[in-house]
Structures
1.
Amino acid sequence: MKRTIDILKNSDKMKKAFAFIHSDDENTLAQTLELVKIPAFSNCEKKRSEHFRALMENEGYEVITDEVDNVYTIIRGSGCGPTVYITAHLDTVFPMDTPLIERREGEKIFVPGISDDTRCLAEILSVMRAIKAAELTPVGDIIIGANVGEEGLGNLRGVRNFFRNNADKVDGFITVDGAGTGICIGAVGSLRYKVTFSGPGGHSNGAFGLVNPIHAMGRAIAYISEMRAPQEPRTTFCVGVVEGGTSVNSIAGSCSMLMDIRSVSQEELLKLDAKFKECVQKAVKDENDRWEEERNSPFAHFDTSARIEVTIEEIGNRPAGMQTENDDIVRIVKEAYEAVGVTIPYMGAASTDANIPISLGIPAVAVSGGGKSGNAHNVEEWFDPTDAYLGVQRILLTLFSMVGLSGVSEALLPVRGK
Ligand SMILES: [Zn+2]
């Protein structure tokens, strides 16, 4: 594997591509700044998607826009290699009215969304230009572009849609996300819910004895907070938001809470999910039972048939999964990074677009783009473009290590099922 990557890296074609990427550095930064000014909150990416499509077309590529506004092109290989889908996400965590004003401090450029993930979108374009400039023909096919819906409310809808239609056509997946040199080989899965407790509501004094949705939710939270989750594989839970009630002297008609459960193990995720649902049902039952005596009292001045009702609405579902350092795709990334003198500082698990392919058993990694960044998901997000072209070179080498370079090196990523 190391030998093949060395041959690839030292080939005239790859050297030409590397030199091109270096010379393209200014252009890549200019495109980063052009794209970042187009607001693209999750589920509102259309404008940025259309603009990205136009930029791809400017480079001479034929572009497909799918039904959810993912955009990509297919670069056909010389044959018989794996198909790798490489992408970066169009959406950001910033609502559409967030001011996207550029500010510079030394080398740092501040704009919300600049590093996560706008810079990586521009790097994808630089990779596409390098492929043309150095006339690189892959052995396997490359599907390259940009996708929607990675961040919170997007619920991975872009990549989810892509794999719903193309899972059997893809042998490997790379998402370029954020800056730095760590790689992500595992998928932290999550299940998210809005839980709503309701009852008729009434006067705190006059209707005393009536079931109380807020009390039921309090019970549920108390039970949830006593749940136990394994540290390995890491599994976590949190009630993040509670809402409800109208006044201090009213039994509320309804209240709700938002629940987040995460794990790198799909099995543990589902186990904890079942426990959480038990806690909610137990809380409802206990709250309904609690007022039995008051309901049977001759002094009951309220609707004695009323009981707490609960709805558990799923608002997020990201599948989990883990790969190991021995998996081909992980070894290829590691060797390709080492070939350009980068030692990967960690191989962790996170919640990224790679969750979907990993959960489907399709080899996938999330790698970072070039440069440095900070304050991700914060309006003070910044990007430092110093030597950022090195990241683009790393991505190109990783990609062609996987798919092979026609006439130069074989594909290292196996075709699935072979
Ligand atoms: Zn991201």
2.
Amino acid sequence: MAKYRMTCDWHTHTTFSHGKGRVEDNVRAAATKGLETLGIADHGPGHVLYGVKRNELTAMREEIRRLDGACSGVRVLMGVEANIVNRSGKLDIEGEDFARFDFVLAGYHYGALGEEPARALGAMAANYLSGRLGRAGAKRRRENTEMVIKALYENDVFMLTHPGDKAPVDIRAVAEACERTGTLFEINAWHALDEDGLRAAAATGTRFAISSDAHTPDRVGDFEAALAAALRAGIDVARIVNIEEI
Ligand SMILES: [Zn+2]
Ligand SMILES: [Zn+2]
């Protein structure tokens, strides 16, 4: 049985949004796990409950600069997990904001309202209910799929986080959009995609990355269960850019 290691974990949270650890705690955890690169990707500023505050971005950058390379040589990058806010394809960061980050992740979450709050709230309620009922209407799924694909085409997104989580989508269509736009399709170790979803993504040409989505330092670098699920679904490990055979 082959053994694998994770080289980079681009998706971890800290106290700058609603993670439990400080940047430094995540860096130490990354060093312990033998990671080469750690991404701090707190929630985008448009999230009403736990978005990163714009006036803290400078302090965050300072902190990351201080810790970059300081702990077993782990490279530390400042990212953000931007919110896909609505049908326009807009994120809650735009224009010059992009230059403040080393990379931008994007995902759909409840709680980011954008410029059409009533519509966003309606969609959230419908997505939440369809999740509870275990089924989504075709129209809801189509609208979510269009929203996510539009966000990928309209923005320079490094990785799409937890596709299909919180908003049911046509996974194959979304994975094809990842392929065409050069966006990594995330295999999230916390919000796992089911095997059918992974198989649908595998049928496209997209590249993947595994993320811990750690909200506590002890989960930084978690990848084993997500990798096992990916391999079971027939995803060739060579397509997962941050996993290496050892
Ligand atoms: Zn997320
Ligand atoms: Zn996250």
3.
Amino acid sequence: MTQTLSSGHPTTDLPEIPPDVTPERYAEILRALSQASVDRHFDAFVDIDWDHPDFQVRPDDPRWVLPADVDPLGAHPWYQAQSLERQIAIGQWRQANILKVGLQFENILIRGIMQYVFTLPNGSPEFRYLTHEATEECHHTQMFQETVNRIGAPVEGMPWLMRRMAGVLAWAGSAVPYAFFIGVLAGEEPIDHTQKGILRSRTDLPPILSRVMEIHVAEEARHISFAHHYIRRNAPGLGRVEKLVISAVFPLIMRGLCDVIMKPPASFRREFGIPRSVMKDVYWRSPESRVRLQDLFGDVRMLADQARLRGNPLARLMWRLCRIDGRPSRYRSEPPVAFTRG
Ligand SMILES: [Fe+2]
Ligand SMILES: [Fe+2]
């Protein structure tokens, strides 16, 4: 059970769950995940040296320019034609907004987890593991908010409607836990995939950003592992109609939350005078951006196949309509083709 930060490239050596897992085996896996949380965890105000001079956010630091190989806006000719000063300002605003959406999402997740664990019986192994997860998410919201504060951009994060719906979404944790954990994964996978891509690209990042991402990727491996286990384990217990509905809604939840996280809000476009056509290209009209969108969900397609939630015609149609169909990963965190070539 290792999450290594020393190289800056975290590993995800976590147990995989076979489809016909017994309750004993499931409990064992959750105990292993819980122990991993005890052995390797981070505190936002112990493990990050906020006052180190390298961690200061400066308006003339070119490391805030969006990396062209992993950020779709960073790769766009319009962005590359801007002055360096403006590229930095746009980069800082964009990173701040991603962190803000991330911490709002995690806030909903923590509330939903609390709703869910409140319903669990004595002796449930999920109680301990999920409480570890919520603890870690609290630290993530602190480190993300601290970074947003230091960047200083006036970002609001999620769209207005989503912020208003936060309480209802958290309630899904106890009302419809299966759909809730699909939503958890829908938030975690795009952020994790993007952060891993940035860390793998070996781009020279601002240290404040790379430190926060390294910590996040390391702990998120456990969270994503649990969500995969939960979804796979409970799929056989769904009724026939419920399974059909879930299989159709699964890609919708993935794509919907992905857009909330990945697409900057209208205020971003107005603030920097970004042409609408650029935003459309980047999210997700151009062929390259379509590929990026599909790449985000390789692991999720693998999971949906394992849970037998992608095989029926309606599900297949929905994955296609949401434009996130394609080849499933062969194993978790398999790098997309672009990385395996390099
Ligand atoms: Fe997190
Ligand atoms: Fe998480």
